[in-house]
Amino acid sequence: MADAVEADLVRDARELLAEAHGLLGEGRELAVHELRFVASRLAESLADVLRVAESRGMRLGVGDPTVDDDLDELGEEGLKAGE
């Protein structure tokens, strides 16, 4: 059952990404509320896919990375560049 849920989440993320590429690549300007909606949906999808990756990693015996570990790896300069 978990595999089926994970497959659905990954499929949904792919579909959302394709839709976002379409919206952002059409050459038209999006209104602020449209951009906010797309960004919000992409963030939700990213959170779901990260849960899938972490779950699979735990099942494979890979360490459980934390947000703090990820931020430490980026360093302060990486965060500024990504803002």
Can you offer a commentary on this structure?
There is one protein chain. The protein is built from 3 helices and no strands. It has helices at residues 2-25, 32-59, 67-82. Mean pLDDT is 79; it is low at 79-83.
Main beta sheet: none
Mean pLDDT: 79
Rg calculated over all Cα atoms: 16 Å
Number of helices: 3
Q: What is the number of beta strands?
A: 0
Beta content comes to under 5%
Low-confidence sequence ranges: 79-83
N-to-C SSE series? HHH
Structural class from helices and strands?
Answer: mainly alpha
What is the straight-line distance between the termini? 38 Å
What general outline do the C-alpha atoms trace? elongated
- Share of residues in helices: over 70%
Any key phrases for this structure?
disordered C terminus, mainly alpha, 3 helices
Briefly summarize what is shown.
The chain has helices at 2-25, 32-59, 67-82. It has 83 residues and is mostly helical.
Give me the secondary-structure topology.
Layout: H1 2-25, H2 32-59, H3 67-82
Helix pairs in contact: 1-2
